[in-house]
TrEMBL record:
GO BP field: cell wall organization; peptidoglycan biosynthetic process; regulation of cell shape
Function as written in the Swiss-Prot or TrEMBL entry: A probable RNA chaperone. Forms a complex with KhpA which binds to cellular RNA and controls its expression. Plays a role in peptidoglycan (PG) homeostasis and cell length regulation.
Protein name in the entry: RNA-binding protein KhpB
Segments passing through the bilayer: none
Domain of life: Bacteria
Keywords: Cell shape, Cell wall biogenesis/degradation, Chaperone, Cytoplasm, RNA-binding
Family named by the database record: Belongs to the KhpB RNA-binding protein family.
Gene that produces this protein: khpB
The record's note on its domains: Has an N-terminal Jag-N domain and 2 RNA-binding domains (KH and R3H).
Residue ranges constituting the R3H domain according to the UniProt record: 142-208
UniProt source species: Deferribacter autotrophicus
Main location per the UniProt record: cytoplasm
Amino acid sequence: MKYYEVEGSTVDEAINNFLIQHKIPREYIEIEIIEKGSKGLFGFGKKNAKIKIKFDDNEYLKRRSKVILAEILEKAGFEDFHIEVIEDYPYYTLNIQSPDSSLLIGKMGQTLEALQFLVERLLNVDEKSDIKILVDVENYRKRVIEDLKNRAIELANKVKKTRRVEKLPPMIPMVRKEIHTALKSISGVRTESYGDGNIKTIYIIPEDIK
């Protein structure tokens, strides 16, 4: 929940200015009038209206993200799909179910990553937001990332014992980020990504090897 104090010549103008500036529908805000304002006399003593606005940004992000994703899919030519909403604070997952799931995932998850990027870009999510919007297809993200995390942890423990560098299969940024984060908590090893373009390989390296 966020709070704003806004001014305008009138209460209505203050409200409209806020809605236009933040590009949000009226139904997501609650208004408290602090000062109604006054026109004054012959231009003297004029006072702006002042209002306090309560904006439920989390609820807005949740509803708006689903609408945006549906619009993207429709414009891309997909007709047979259903968006399942999975809430597991702070994550809000939009899980697409469709006969075209393989196309929506793409090679090594590249199409899925593009969908994630588009939703975030169009939604303009604040990095400080309490919730994180995730796009998934038939639970692909959960299945693949969990499998890779488990494999990465096994290799990290192996590296600690053998002191030999190990590597994981090439992967897209979305997945690499999860793997790097998962291995941060394992002492004695570090991770580095190598490769050209978006698809890179993660190497698990003994911490004291330069």
